[in-house]
Design brief:
Elements (H helix, E strand, L loop, with lengths): L15 E2 L2 H12 L3 H8 L35 E4 L5 E4 L11 H4 L8 E4 L11 E4 L15 E3 L1 E3 L3 E3 L5 H9 L5 H11 L15 H19 L17 E4 L8 E4 L4 E4 L2 E4 L3 H5 L1 E2 L2 E2 H10 L17 H19 L1 H6 L8 H6 L31
Antiparallel strand pairs: 1-3, 2-3, 4-5, 4-6, 7-8, 9-12, 10-11, 11-12, 13-14
């Protein structure tokens, strides 16, 4: 998947929140302020200040006047994969985002999937590659962030983002048609971290390829959580985490009892929670703890970050139950993933002989997408 983009650089944390109501309240507070108060709430950076002139993000109907003069309504928040396994909401206003990666927004649609490399941390367990159906910010919980790799180079699932010649080569090698989703599924099952970045070995054996693709499809389906026409993930054997004791209005601590398979959210209790869910880490960071911290960490009084729900929303509980299921299923699949390391692999020499390597420079650049006009600064149309 040669075309990739660096992670988004948001520049200010208040433009992301776990719920839409919070973002709208923050917007209203900001546009209701004036002068120095608005500037202080905005949190200027070198890339963005209230006076910055910038084009709109592709596909987003947001204002392009300088934010110092903004008085309009809050733009419609969009879903964002805010780091691993944490879908939150984003204000899709380019005036608020330091580096928005417009090339990713141009291809983000109902046919797109994004493979997201995870930062390498020596000795830390966890996946090297994750997948999401919503636009990811590429945030890594620890270590250096990786790259964001769209599955398709154009909207509508057109032009797979695959090295030219690779799919025909693999189709001949394995004796059946190999598609871009097949290659992504194999990568999800076999990717390994390394100091040089995410590595995806290609097997020489057709049966091992087929087994890896089947496993990767399951892992992808679990991570997509029902998106793209799939099914919601479920634990085997009819097990399902339930709220055994209500979560309090403002929980502050998270704890786990392995013997009872119980997650304690202050006085609240959720069970059964498989050990694999609690122990699941990315970059050495436990995912359940990070998800909880994103919703309960204290913020600076008077800042926009301090605006949030007065009490723990019910939808957060539903998201937590789903996340427990996702992490448990992924953790339970680790032995199968480890087994894919065995056996002979295709070599760089074989790929060079087939003309797949070296990858041409044009395949590493985004495609030219000119299907609509984009609004530039101060309401002018951008020149593409």
């Amino acid at each position: 998947m040669p075309w990739s983009a660096a992670p988004l650089r948001l520049g200010r944390s208040w433009i992301v929140a776990p719920d839409v109501r919070t973002l709208r309240a923050r917007w209203d507070r900001l546009v209701g302020a004036a002068g120095e108060d608005r500037t202080a709430l905005f949190r200027p950076s070198r890339a963005r200040t209230p006076s910055t002139s910038v084009a709109a993000l592709p596909g987003q109907r947001t204002g392009t006047v300088r934010f110092a003069r903004e008085t309009g309504r809050c733009p419609e928040p969009v879903r964002l994969a805010h780091g691993p396994f944490d879908e939150q909401w984003l204000l899709p206003d380019h005036r608020l985002i330091d580096t928005g990666r417009p090339e990713l927004w141009r291809v983000a649609d109902d046919a797109q999937l994004f493979a997201v490399e995870q930062g390498y941390v020596p000795g830390a367990p966890g996946p090297a590659l994750l997948v999401t159906a919503v636009l990811p910010d590429g945030r890594s919980p620890a270590g250096r962030p990786g790259r964001i790799r769209p599955l398709y180079r154009r909207p509508g699932g057109a032009e797979p983002n695959v090295a030219p010649g690779l799919l025909p080569f693999l189709s001949v090698r394995y004796g059946h048609e190999v598609t871009a989703p097949d290659l992504l599924a194999w990568a999800m099952a076999s990717a390994r971290p390394s100091p040089a970045g995410c590595r995806v070995p290609l097997p020489a054996d057709r049966d091992r390829w087929s087994a890896g693709v089947a496993l990767g499809r399951r892992l992808t389906g679990v991570q997509l959580r029902g998106a793209r026409g799939g099914e919601k993930p479920r634990l085997p054997g009819g097990r399902r985490p339930y709220v055994r004791a209500p979560i309090p209005a403002r929980p502050a601590e998270l704890a786990y009892d392995a013997a009872e398979e119980t997650l304690a959210v202050d006085e609240g209790r959720i069970a059964p929670v498989p050990t694999e869910a609690w122990e699941y880490t990315v970059g050495g960071v436990r995912m359940l703890e990070q998800w909880f911290a994103h919703r309960t960490a204290p913020a600076e009084p008077g800042s926009l970050e301090a605006i949030g729900p007065a009490a723990w929303p019910q939808e957060w509980t539903s998201e937590l139950l789903e996340l427990i299921t996702v992490l448990a299923l992924l953790g339970q699949s680790e032995p199968e993933r480890a087994a894919l390391d065995e056996g002979p692999r295709l070599t760089r020499a074989a790929l060079r002989e087939a003309g797949v390597l070296p990858v041409p420079d044009r395949a590493r650049r985004p495609a030219t997408v000119l299907d609509h006009q984009e609004e530039g600064p101060e309401g002018q149309f951008a020149l593409l």
